[in-house]
Amino acid sequence: MFRNFFATLPPVVKNLLIINVLIWGAMAIVPSIDRVFDNYLALYYFTSPAFRPFQILSYMFLHGGFTHLLFNMFALAMFGRTIEMVMGSQRFLFYYITCGICAALVQLGVFALYIHNLESLLPADVCNMVADEGLSLLRRGYNYSDPDCAQLNAFINTPMVGASGAIYGVLLAFGFLFPNMPVYIFFIPFPVKAKWLIIGYFVLELVYGITGSADGVAHFAHLGGMIFGFLMLLYWRKKGVFNNHWFF
User: Fold this and answer.
1) What is the C-alpha separation between 100 and 43, in angstroms, rounded?
2) pTM of the model
3) CATH number of 2-247
């Protein structure tokens, strides 16, 4: 059954699945690859010594654990296949990558606000100290005892990984193109229309992001993927890319 399902996947979704699974497998099996990928391909804040511009793309092919990978790839397979068939492979790939990049930029923009606030509370020499030695401390498993310094260091030098921003863009596209399509969710015994599911996800991510709930999850990246995905879809609909058939 799985082999038949995989064989029916369109090319971009299929190759994204393969790439993500292979990278996760290599990182899980070979510790040295795990460290290298985390150090160079995960996304760091702009002022971190570890930041490289290509990380804005590469981060979305890394995952923090099997559960993280499983949920993202499951959503990609379930919803991405339909969206790629509607958009076409080239447009879908552009949409997916753009949502992932915009998600990263939104999350980094939010970090910038937090970092600016923390730096205003600390002397300049302390901020310089964090910039100079903070990354090395975190990589050795340490951080500063002062809570403001520790938080500043975490914002600057903790990497971000995962395709979730792009995946939330894919979910948004499904709700946008098929708003009344019934969707079954594991913990709800009845189908939910796609538009209400997506609105629910958006509200939850906004609440979690504002309140800081579920710390360690890049909620604003999820929101960024959805918002920029929505803007792209609005633009394409205005340009007549999609037939009206897809909006009901």
Assistant:
1) 12
2) 0.91
3) 1.20.1540.10
